[in-house]
Write a structure and sequence with these properties.
Layout lengths: L2 E4 L1 H6 L9 H10 L4 E5 H8 L6 H12 L2 E6 L4 E6 L2 H4 L5 H8 L5 H7 L8 H14 L2 E3 L10 H10 L5 E3 H17 L1 H14 L7 H4 L3 H8 L5 H11 L5 H14 L14 H14 L4 E3 L3 H13 L5 E3 L1 H6 L1 H6 L5 H14 L1 E7 L5 E6 L10 E4 L3 E5 L11 H15 L11 H4 L5 E6 L3 E10 L2 E10 L2
Parallel strand pairs: 1-2, 1-7, 2-3, 7-8
Antiparallel strand pairs: 3-4, 5-6, 9-10, 10-11, 11-12, 12-15, 13-14, 14-15
Helix pairs in contact: 3-16, 10-11, 15-16, 15-17, 16-17
């Protein structure tokens, strides 16, 4: 089933009480919400946590109307994204956003927090010993290798001192606190983030390499202005030098550095908007990579997602609102409501689509795989056909090449609507009976055809497939 990931702003645009309410977009999403899969993620919750708490429940319920329980979240223990059956009104409260916001609060003292970890029981000699050892460790003196070079211009010195500690006498605690506080400000303070971008722009004129001006040539132009190294080369070297970076870490860092290096320039920053906002956008783009479409009215997010997807070979299509509205006819025409029309389209696509593979089993039996333009039932994008059989299946790029049980439910119900109950008198999808990965989900027999709907292996993953066999 085609998966559509809309960022938070899209859901804002379809609220009738919004000054920018888009009635056409609302109408389209209402038409599609029961025939496609709208996905959402923890990034939506990060956005919502920045709004007034009195609106949380109402906004979650509105989001749930469209995304139902199609939830993506990053599991830091498994270091991978998870596709979960969880409604927004449930998943949002799994995170304590108060703790998260306290962590970014400028008044939060990292040293005090670390020491308090051991202030559990002062009568416990082991804990008291640990506490003293830890305090002594933090108070160890170390040389400051970062002392500001006197040759640095005055205009740059204040910026450098913001990032690097300037005092000559340092302790491990001082150093830890300095970098933590800088990261804290960078995440939450607009001015701190602007200062970092300013430092880069004073080193090199961003007009000489920005994506807005140079599009796909940006990387070569970047190379001309940064000592012969392209942006993608710098990032790849960084990834290669740090063995513990997983795919999520790489994606988020690459996306975020596009803004830090001024390759892209986001819309004017809000008063409280710092790196944290870019980080949330990066998460939206990451979670959208497991869907077929990313829909956003944020030009900056779309630009960074485009560059990042290209680097990581991710095939998710990126739409603005107008693109999404124009695609309406494709979505609606790919719903199969007539058996006769379905067969005619299937024959046409089998004979006229791009051939991507041929396998001769015998002299008389050749299997041909084509990439069909018409995605049957808004899902099947490949056809494998031979003399007596046609198999429809789905092939996605590596990161999204998996099944969602809700896709199986929707496909089963669409087939029941088209063909009726199967030969075993099984009707609409039942999660208790159908989610155990039986190879065959539904099976129809007619005088001329055997039709089987179930699971299949594709190139590098698993998908649903629909097989039509001519009876001999």
């Amino acid at each position: 089933m085609l998966r559509v990931y809309c960022d938070t702003n899209i859901y804002s645009l379809i609220k009738e009480d919004n000054k920018s309410f888009n009635s056409d977009l609302r109408e389209l999403m209402d038409e599609l919400k029961d025939i496609l899969i709208f996905t959402y993620s923890h990034a939506h919750h990060l956005d919502l946590s920045n709004s007034l708490q009195e609106y949380w429940q109402k906004d979650l319920e509105f989001l749930e109307t469209y995304v139902k329980d199609h939830y993506f979240n990053y599991n830091p223990l498994k270091k991978d994204a998870e596709c979960l059956l969880a409604k927004p009104t449930e998943s949002f409260y799994d995170t304590d956003f108060t703790v998260y916001k306290n962590y970014l609060n400028p008044d939060f003292d990292i040293m005090e927090s670390l020491l308090n970890e051991y202030d559990i029981d002062e009568d416990d000699e082991i804990i008291k010993t640990h506490n003293e050892i830890f305090k002594n460790l933090l108070n160890l003196s170390i040389p400051n290798l970062f002392v500001t070079n006197e040759n640095i211009e005055d205009s740059q010195k204040s910026l450098v001192e913001r990032f690097l500690p300037s005092q000559e006498n340092l302790t491990i605690g001082n150093l830890t606190s300095h970098f933590f506080n800088y990261g804290q400000r960078l995440f939450s303070d607009k001015e701190e983030f602007k200062s970092l971008k300013k430092m880069i722009s004073e080193y090199a004129d961003t007009d000489k390499y920005s994506f807005e001006k140079w599009k796909d040539q940006y990387d070569e132009k970047f190379k001309e202005n940064f000592q012969g190294k392209s942006f993608t080369e710098i990032m790849q070297q960084l990834f290669d030098s740090v063995p513990n970076y997983n795919e999520y870490d790489k994606f988020i860092l690459f996306f975020s550095c596009l803004e830090g290096y001024n390759i892209t320039k986001d819309k004017p920053l809000r008063k409280s908007q710092g790196y944290d906002s870019i980080h949330t956008d990066a998460n939206h783009a990451w979670y959208a990579s497991f869907s077929d479409f990313l829909v956003s009215d944020d030009k900056g997010l779309r630009a960074k997602a485009y560059i990042t997807y290209k680097f990581f070979n991710i095939e998710t299509e990126i739409f603005n609102v107008d693109d999404f509205l124009k695609y309406k006819i494709n979505f609606l025409q790919q719903e199969e409501v007539s058996w006769k029309a379905f067969v005619e389209k299937l024959l046409h696509e089998s004979e006229n689509s791009l051939i991507i593979e041929k396998n001769a089993i015998t002299q008389d039996e050749v299997f041909v795989t084509v990439k069909n333009e018409h995605h049957f039932f808004n899902y099947f994008n490949r056809i494998l056909h031979s003399t007596n059989s046609v198999i429809l299946y789905c092939q996605r790029s590596f990161n999204s090449n998996f099944i969602m049980y809700k896709e199986g439910q929707l496909l089963t119900n669409k087939l029941i609507n088209l063909l009726g109950s199967d030969s075993n008198d099984m009707h609409y999808y039942d999660f208790e009976k159908d989610s155990d990965k039986n190879e065959v989900i539904r099976h129809w027999l007619t005088e001329e055809l055997e039709i089987i709907f179930g699971y299949a292996q594709n190139n590098g993953g698993i998908c649903y497939c629909l097989e039509l066999l001519l009876k001999k």
